[in-house]
Design goal:
The complex is a heterodimer. In chain A, about 5% of the residues lie in helices and about 50% in strands. Chain A has a single domain, classed as Porin (Beta Barrel), CATH 2.40.160.10. In chain A, the strands form 2 sheets. Chain A has a 16-stranded antiparallel β-barrel. Chain A has a two-stranded antiparallel sheet with strand order 14-15. By secondary structure, chain A is mainly beta. Chain A has 2 helices and 22 strands. The longest helix of chain A is centred in the first third of the chain and has 18 residues. By secondary structure, chain B is of the alpha+beta class. Chain B contains 11 helices and 13 strands. Chain B is globular and about 60 Å long. Chain B starts with 9 loop residues before the first helix and ends in a 6-residue tail after the last helix. The chains are: A mainly beta, B alpha+beta. At the A-B interface, strand 4, strand 19, strand 20, strand 21 and strand 22 of A face helix 1, helix 2, strand 3 and strand 4 of B.
Amino acid sequence: MTTRVIVIAALMGLSQAVLAGQEIVASAPALPATQAPVAAAETKFVWREYPSIRSGRFRIDFRARFTADQRWSDSLSDDVDDARFDIARRRIGVAGSFGNLIEFQVERELKNDVPWRDVYIDVRPKRELGVQVGKFKMPFSLDENTSATNLDFIYRSLAASTLAPGRDRGVMVHGRVGGRLIGYEAGVFLHDGDNALANDPEEVQGDQTTALRLTIEPISARKGRDDDLRFGVAWTDSDVPEGMSAISGDTALHSHFFPSNLWVRGARRRIGGELQWRPGPYSLKAEYIRMSQQRLGQSVTDGDLPDATADGWYVSGTWAITGESKSRGLESPNRPLPGGGFGALELAGRIEAMTFGSGAAAGEGSRSPRSDVILRNRDQVATFGVNWYVNRWVKVLGNIIRESIEDPARGPVPSRPVFWSSVVRFQVVL
Amino acid sequence: MAALRSSAIWPGLVLFAVVVAATPHVEAQSGTNVFDPTVMHDISMWMNSRDLALIRLHYDLNTHYPVDVETAGTRVRNVSVRSRGGGSRNASKLGLLVEFARYASSQTLDGRRAIVLDNQWQDPPMLRERVAMALFTRMGVPAPLESPTRVSINGTSQGVYSIVESLDDQFLTRIGAGDGYLFEFHWLRPYYFEDLGDDLNAYTPFFEARTRDTEALSSLYTPIRQMIAAINEPSDTLWRSRVEQYVDLPQLIAHVAVETFLSEFDGLLGYAGLNNFYIYRPPGSTRHQFFPWDRDNAFQEVDASIFRRTDENILVRRALTYPDLYTYYLDALEQTARAAAEGGFLDNQIRTGAALIEADAAVDVNTPFTQDERLNAIAYLLEFARRRPGIVLAQVADARKSPSR
């Protein structure tokens, strides 16, 4: 643990040193005078927000993100120290572009069962049409598609982290029409994302998945501080082979409150609706996601069962009390520390719920993996947070989380339906 | 407000103020008592074909599978079954633990949360288990209720089974034993109550808690550790007083007497050490009682000695060195022999039991025994019922000539 603290401290120190004005620019060696002059642009190494190599229209940025969490929770075992302190992310990558035509990104988790994260190339000949190929997040869910670096809370909403598909390999067309008025993303992917990844030989993941997302920004033409009001709808469809659903209901700190042992087969469909508005220092976000899963031939008599369903929603809001514009991002505070100020300070709040059950309305619920009426369970969560953007590299987040499990017998603290957790995250981004 | 005093909250309270956000008995009655031993019951199960293939493939695992169960016109949905048994486990005639309340905690059948379907894989006449338990009960030794049944899965007959009462808190309530600590003994190796040491973890594999299993290891197993330490007390002078703190010796001896009369091959005096029993400790007590389980291997030898293997089990060997306990053992054997013979009790149990299952047993294609083997086994049981009481009484009379073992 001491080593972890030293690593974090060293990274914070490095970032502050860079902030103190030590912009590093290293030009490529001058060509020998005997060589013919080349029309190519000068290649140079630049370190402003992050290390970068630039050559004419070509640019490649080197990125790294380190986070460490300290957790306290009624749902964690007192004798498990590792559960309390966790270096949650150690991520490195490169991102680059060639003018406005091509963008690419390669990102890898240093220690993870699924190390490769975004690995894609995005070709955008026109604003109205782009094609993205590789491994990347499916176009579903505002929260899931928000970069981990820019989240308003330490953990994504339950709905996004559980019911949205997440990353997968595929191809997607996307673009914007009418300025920013209408946006579209439509793709085909090999499976239905790493949030639905099977962890057990009996568990199954969706096969080829199609995804579609449409967004509309109705007041984008006003060009004001409150012009980014956005509504969106999204949909995914995939076919799941026979097996146990790999999707479990997890609490904020990743303890099960609904198991992943339901037998399923057939179509898995997700629908989602989202809202985002960031006027000035404020922001408002809301989402609703519903996932339905067919259970063809899964009854004890080999007949069909009613669909298994899961619903999740959240409403969240933030207020940058130091006045920064939310839509422009708080990552670069007006008065960073050091640099004459204290950084940016933001308050955040979120309420949410996620419910697992079945489409059958009548009859008594059961925990049987082949029950027609699934005994539902629900987690209601309220999260209160404060975010301190120290400077463009360092961010400290603190969250208090109150969870209420409808059937606590299936939750992490069977004797208590309500439990609390606190988490502090230190984040360094290069 | 109690939650607010939790230590988990205070670190976060340093960061900001808290705003607190605001926030539901199914009993199936079959119409008959599933343990009525005078009725040939009928249990039908429906199981997804994939699950049926899996449970046959992995019959050696304790994986739970969902089924619907129907008996006497009552269908109970979302029931759990799993393969069970030791040497009787097999893929073709599955031994099954049926749990009505596993997936719906308040669900029961005739008030029972669980029953065992004994496949009688080691019981050629398909009668030993039920007849043996009937004699235990007649002699006042608490034993599971049993009744015969035919079982079908997905419309296909599985053959003749015994419905056996699950030994759990409901069993304890039925026999009026209170809500104490019940443990199932698991055979892991030949074991005769040798001292296992001070580490309580050494006892858990042998004695699985069936009630109060969420309590601390120390409250569950310290009295068992103390019981076994007392059984191994080196001083004969201290042995009796120490062991009586932890073992209901008269109850144990009555149990062993019935088992010995029945010429049990695999019980407390089993051929490979202790096997097939539960121990029970009432609440607030340290004294343990012994309950019989799985009597498929009873009725082995009609002329078996009443002292067969009594010198292997440390507890029984040392108990029988005390003249009063020795006499108690002989008295219990004599009472058992007389009760078995009285009014043709044992003979009637065998004849009525055989008649009840005859039609179904004759067409049970899943039993590992041929029809000739089954009929010969029934004939042998009848011979046992006729001859065993006299043989035991003669041995008892002979044994009374000695004051102790």
